[in-house]
Amino acid sequence: MTPVELSRTVLRAVRRAVDAGELSVVVPERAVVTVPGPGGAGDYATNIALQLARPAGQPPLKVAEVLRPHLAGAEGVTGVEITGPGFLNISLDRAAASTALVRRIRREGIRYGHTGALTGQVYVLRVPYEVRAEVIADVLARIVGSQGGRVEVEHREPANVRPVPAPEDPTPLGPDAARWALLHPAPHDRPRVTADHLVQRESNPLFRVRYAHARTRATVRNAADLGFSAEPGEPTEPGVPIAQAAQAAPATPSGVPATLLPLLADYPRLLATAAPLPRPDGIGTPGRLARQLVAVADATLDLLPATLPRGDEKPSAAHRARLALAEAAGTVLAGGLSLLGIDAPDHL
After folding, report:
1. What is the mean pLDDT of residues 54-77?
2. I want to staple 102 with a disulfide (CB 3.0 to 4.6 A). Which of 63, 84, 232, 305 is the partner?
3. Residue 236: its pLDDT value, please?
């Protein structure tokens, strides 16, 4: 269950409480779901009870107590705990959640994270005649399009997309490296247009992203040569919560990086953040996407050594599950690079 899906689950719990006459509120359009803060518990937390307390005319703790059984009964939820002034802390079935996530990514392919949430929405971006602004506007159009919306780009003032300009023409880097050089930094940061973006080594974030994708494809081919294929399942040892694992050790005892599943689960939410156009938080989405792909790539490269059997070891259910996870990670890398307008080769 991704944070976006869990947010919908929280809203359905509110709707059930309203329909049962236990709360008298207008069901909000969104519920914020985050990693639990200090003193929290479980995999995710929501402040929906605090959000609804005033319109409901009840203390946040009372609202949380009303919502708790409706949320605890949702599919995939194994427990709900109330902490602090009324935060609902949600524990998920880790095995079911990770398996469902990998199955979904493999089913949806590079369209994972695409929705129709912005259908009918048209955003007008006014950009100066400057290469970085135009590239960012192009990627925003791709991301908004992935959510069902449409972007119209106009070259006129006053501009509402005005990142720090490129210090020089990035064309000599080639189309992929040039786009990465302009997109990877935050819009308010000065981009580096240097040959560093062309080096084929780990110090180059673009290389790591493309290399991780190519490695996942090679691993799938190697697994086929060994006579086994991917099968989604539980690739990690029990006991590490899905979201809090991102703050834990780099890898679980099974060799699966703790950050990978949370990063894959968070991908749809990241694409949805392009919606606040033309505010700066929406304009920064291309850079955040590029940087998240780097994090996915690094976690994927940590996963791959544990994906194939070693020596005389026979393929196990864990190997098949890790292969499915690696394949899903490669799919997210390919989909993200596509939205950035960058090629994702199968061989490097």
Report:
1. 94
2. 232
3. 53
Structure tokens at 147: 């959510």
Tell me if 168 is assigned to some domain: no
For residue 127, pLDDT over 50 is answered with yes
Amino acid 322 reads R
Are 87 and 203 found together in one domain? Answer: no
Predicted local distance difference test score (pLDDT) of residue 123? 94
Cβ atoms 266, 2 nearer than 8 A: yes
What single letter denotes the amino acid at residue 18?
Answer: V
pTM of the model: 0.80
Reduced to 3 states (helix: H, G, I; strand: E, B; else coil), residue 306 is helix
Taken as a whole, the chain contains a residue count of: 348
Name the domain boundary from 49, 69, 92.
Answer: 92
Residue 327 burial class via C-beta count within 10 angstroms: exposed 0-12, middle 13-18, buried 19 and up: buried
Domain endpoint, select from 71, 92, 113: 92
Query: How many CA atoms within 13 Å lie on the side-chain side of 319?
Result: 17
- For residues 216 and 327, the answer to whether their CB atoms sit within 8 Å is yes
The CA radius of gyration of the chain, in Å to the nearest whole number, is: 22
Which alpha helices (H) appear in 109-198, and where do they start and end? 131-146, 175-183
Q: Is residue 15 included in any domain, yes or no? A: yes
Tokens 């002034």 correspond to 85
Nearest residue to 98 (alpha-carbon basis) of 238, 273, 249: 238
Residues 79 and 211 in one domain: no
Domain count, the chain: 2
The answer on pLDDT for 192 being more than 60 is yes
